[in-house]
Amino acid sequence: MLRIAVPNKGSLSETAAQMLLEAGYSGRRDPKELHHSDPRNDVEFFYLRPRDIATYVGSGALDVGITGRDLLLDSGSSAVETASLGFGRSTFRFAGPAGEFSELADMAGLRVATSYPGLVGDFLAEAGVSVALIKLDGAVESAVRLGVADVIADVVETGTTLRNAGLEVFGPVILQSNAVLVSSPEEKPGVATLLRRLQGVLVAREYVLMDYDCPVAILDEATALVPGFESPTVSPLHDPEWVAVRVMVPRTETNLVMDRLYDLGARAILVSSIHAARL
Ligand SMILES: Nc1ncnc2c1ncn2[C@@H]1O[C@H](COP(=O)(O)OP(=O)(O)OP(=O)(O)O)[C@@H](O)[C@H]1O
Ligand SMILES: O=P(O)(O)OC[C@H]1O[C@H](OP(=O)(O)OP(=O)(O)O)[C@H](O)[C@@H]1O
Ligand SMILES: [Mg+2]
């Protein structure tokens, strides 16, 4: 059985659980359950703190898990990033009181509060800036106002938490993070199936199927405009001057593509959702 670590709480937990359901696995019914077995799919789930997941997977206690790239790097674990899962996007940034800091060197010798000392320590060592790291568990944006630190380094999504604390980002982006699949260095056989299933969910979310009728005379132009994932499916119609085309289109471009195809001369343009996929 493949042993999979899933975030039990926090920003990643709901979407991770939802993705696994859409990928055909059964999940826990009660949020207090720490373990759930899905024998039909030959997997079992362990619900753990997102911060601990890379440690379990890196040690080989569990085979694979879902966590944040920032947490993986902070852990120093030997787990490896197998795939990006396209949700929980954030950046990891330095921030200080508005207008006081502009570059990394400005914080030399000062106190930097963070919940990610491994990640921040490695970044500053690489940059050759020496600081005093203050390790806090969370809500680090309050550390400056409360006089515990001069600067913070933390997850930024919308920037609202920073603004509310009177802080602004400065210096280079430490990391672009999002949810990732991590696996033990010796990858177990079932990981490839899990990954294909999760990638199927991503495709179903990110793409739609578009069908349209196309005059043969403009087929090359139309397929150049919307090349699809590999190559469009082109089928004959009863009228020899027309063909039917089926193609995958990024969901966000749906209406733009429909307008362009219509202007070219395509008709009966229909869009449908993809329920599941293996590419
Ligand atoms: N506002 C956010 N937007 C996107 N991703 C976020 C956000 N906050 C945290 N994350 C990401 O979620 C992951 C885990 O953080 P999360 O906040 O869920 O855990 P935690 O801070 O340990 O737990 P909690 O906040 O529940 O105490 C990290 O990878 C982080 O980058
Ligand atoms: O840029 P924003 O959209 O405001 O989001 C970023 C905030 O979200 C997370 O906090 P969380 O709620 O996880 O609390 P924590 O700091 O205690 O982990 C993160 O640590 C930031 O504080
Ligand atoms: Mg948090």
UniProtKB/TrEMBL annotation:
<dbReference type="InterPro" id="IPR013820">
    <property type="entry name" value="ATP_PRibTrfase_cat"/>
</dbReference>
<dbReference type="Pfam" id="PF08029">
    <property type="entry name" value="HisG_C"/>
</dbReference>
<protein>
    <recommendedName>
        <fullName>ATP phosphoribosyltransferase</fullName>
        <ecNumber>2.4.2.17</ecNumber>
    </recommendedName>
</protein>
<dbReference type="GO" id="GO:0005737">
    <property type="term" value="C:cytoplasm"/>
</dbReference>
<dbReference type="InterPro" id="IPR001348">
    <property type="entry name" value="ATP_PRibTrfase_HisG"/>
</dbReference>
<feature type="domain" description="ATP phosphoribosyltransferase catalytic">
    <location>
        <begin position="49"/>
        <end position="199"/>
    </location>
</feature>
<keyword id="KW-0067">ATP-binding</keyword>
<feature type="domain" description="Histidine biosynthesis HisG C-terminal">
    <location>
        <begin position="204"/>
        <end position="275"/>
    </location>
</feature>
<keyword id="KW-0479">Metal-binding</keyword>
<keyword id="KW-0028">Amino-acid biosynthesis</keyword>
<keyword id="KW-0808">Transferase</keyword>
<dbReference type="GO" id="GO:0005524">
    <property type="term" value="F:ATP binding"/>
</dbReference>
<dbReference type="InterPro" id="IPR015867">
    <property type="entry name" value="N-reg_PII/ATP_PRibTrfase_C"/>
</dbReference>
<keyword id="KW-0328">Glycosyltransferase</keyword>
<keyword id="KW-0460">Magnesium</keyword>
<dbReference type="Pfam" id="PF01634">
    <property type="entry name" value="HisG"/>
</dbReference>
<keyword id="KW-0963">Cytoplasm</keyword>
<keyword id="KW-0547">Nucleotide-binding</keyword>
<comment type="function">
    <text>Catalyzes the condensation of ATP and 5-phosphoribose 1-diphosphate to form N'-(5'-phosphoribosyl)-ATP (PR-ATP). Has a crucial role in the pathway because the rate of histidine biosynthesis seems to be controlled primarily by regulation of HisG enzymatic activity.</text>
</comment>
<dbReference type="GO" id="GO:0000287">
    <property type="term" value="F:magnesium ion binding"/>
</dbReference>
<dbReference type="InterPro" id="IPR011322">
    <property type="entry name" value="N-reg_PII-like_a/b"/>
</dbReference>
<dbReference type="GO" id="GO:0000105">
    <property type="term" value="P:L-histidine biosynthetic process"/>
</dbReference>
<comment type="similarity">
    <text>Belongs to the ATP phosphoribosyltransferase family. Long subfamily.</text>
</comment>
<comment type="pathway">
    <text>Amino-acid biosynthesis; L-histidine biosynthesis; L-histidine from 5-phospho-alpha-D-ribose 1-diphosphate: step 1/9.</text>
</comment>
<dbReference type="InterPro" id="IPR020621">
    <property type="entry name" value="ATP-PRT_HisG_long"/>
</dbReference>
<keyword id="KW-0368">Histidine biosynthesis</keyword>
<dbReference type="InterPro" id="IPR013115">
    <property type="entry name" value="HisG_C"/>
</dbReference>
<dbReference type="InterPro" id="IPR018198">
    <property type="entry name" value="ATP_PRibTrfase_CS"/>
</dbReference>
<dbReference type="GO" id="GO:0003879">
    <property type="term" value="F:ATP phosphoribosyltransferase activity"/>
</dbReference>
